[in-house]
Amino acid sequence: xxxxxxxxxxxALVAVTAGVSEAKTLVFCSEASPAHFDPGPLTGGNDxxxxxxxxxxxxxxxxxxxxxxxxxLAEKWETSADGKEITFHLRPGVKFHTTSYFTPxxxxxxxxxxxxxxxxxxxDNPWYxxxxxxxxxxxxxxxxxxxxxxxxxxxxxxxxxxxxxxxAPMIANLGMDFASIVSKEYADKLAAENNMAAFSTQPxxxxxxxxxxxxxxxxxxxxxxxxxWGGKQPIDDLIFAITTDPSVRAQKLKAGECDIMAYPAPAxxxxxxxxxxxxxxxxxxxxxxxxxxxxxxPPFDKVEVRKALNHAINKKAIIDxxxxxxxxxxxxxxxxxxxxxxxxxxxxxxxxxxxxxxLAEAGVTDLTTDLWAMPVSRPYNPNxxxxxxxxxxxxxxxxxxxxxxxxxxxxxxxxxxxKDRKGPFQIGWTGDxxxxxxxxxxxxxxxxxxxxxxSSWCDKDFEDLIQKAKVTADQAxxxxxxxxxxxxxxxxxxxxxxxxxxxxMPMNKRVQNFKMDPLGIHRFDGVDVxx
Length: 531
Known about the structure:
The chain is α+β, with helices and mostly antiparallel strands and 531 residues long. The chain has helices spanning 45-50, 110-121, 137-141, 144-147, 170-173, 184-192, 198-201, 246-254, 266-274, 303-311, 315-323, 352-361, 384-396, 409-416, 437-444, 460-470, 475-492, and strands spanning 25-30, 60-62, 69-71, 74-79, 85-90, 148-155, 158-163, 209-215, 219-224, 237-242, 260-261, 278-284, 287-292, 327-329, 368-372, 401-405, 425-430, 495-508, 511-512, 528-529.
């Protein structure tokens, strides 16, 4: 799914404020083009940077630089004693963006909230499939249709979520990007004009920045929203300079062509740190790099084959060569920094002889497979092509031939989730909300098959544990359940857990108040620049 046009008429907005030369501009060297600007069906961090965290808001927000939930478009909320009703009280006076293509006639209200979720919930909603081939990956993969019975309008500024059963992560889930609140009035206008696709290319939100234009695969321009409910931002113009090569991003940052860059290559970090004009912030990532086996494809449908291939891979060598001091071997699906991490789980150690033995016992000889390599750099996997080459060599040593394949990032993910995908698939995850459910259920629940469960793995024991954890309010009890889930996951090996990594954020010293976000997104609200 690609954007087809640039909104040339909207560029005039850039010059609206007094004196373009006096406007404060921040340039962000981003790593990939967005699929589009409607955050509901999207899954990529680059998509969220370009849409949900600039243009939109949610009922609740995560604290800047953390995972604590704070009021957003809802000023407050309360949960019923039985945990089945959550009532949100909306912030009055919230404005939608006025653009060259839409002028709102009212403030944000309950109708917008209900529309934002019902378009993802109800298959008979005309917006459920307004783009060809679209899917609501987060909403479906997190089993939201199972938990949300209905959303009721109490009055214009009060909305009640009625649940089928209690759901411990629900509030945190509603702070995630898929839960961004969009304009029903704008949607109705486009539907009446038979121009629904424009909803994804000409966005309208309530967020700190409003969309100006997009030059395909090159530049996205935003302007600070003067009527933002949180106050106008310190910077006037925000520009995303799309630069897919991490080394080129580093060169642009050093040359002053951008102020902040995403995801430096580990080999470039030392040079960036040594530059007197730059600051390189860093933190442990809430992330996992992994490789999913398609467990419906023989011989990967056999756990002993998956275990054999895991034992054949020298993960430490990969960490040393690719992550260069910025990663650690991943044993579990969740990182050690997350609550409920099970430190007693043992990894599938590197043992090529054991790998050969297990393959022989499974009757697997002369195995040839595809091996998928991500086309983009991420902290959890800075160079998937190099990782694939090292795995390819390790597997060759035990008699397995791997052919490396890759596609453009959006197409890569779409092809990867197909149930008939051939071969193990490199992918990764950065937590969205700080809750373990966001890893276990989003990535490996039965309902996430065809969405974000790239292994097509549906295991009753694992499923029972994570579903029970969802309806349990007590965190100590949830911890026990997730610890058991990690044991089951390791025992069945639907994926190779590869690495958890540090995240680095290089920026020019003129940038003020930028906070690294553990949830793997880049937010520019509150950021300033000195001239």
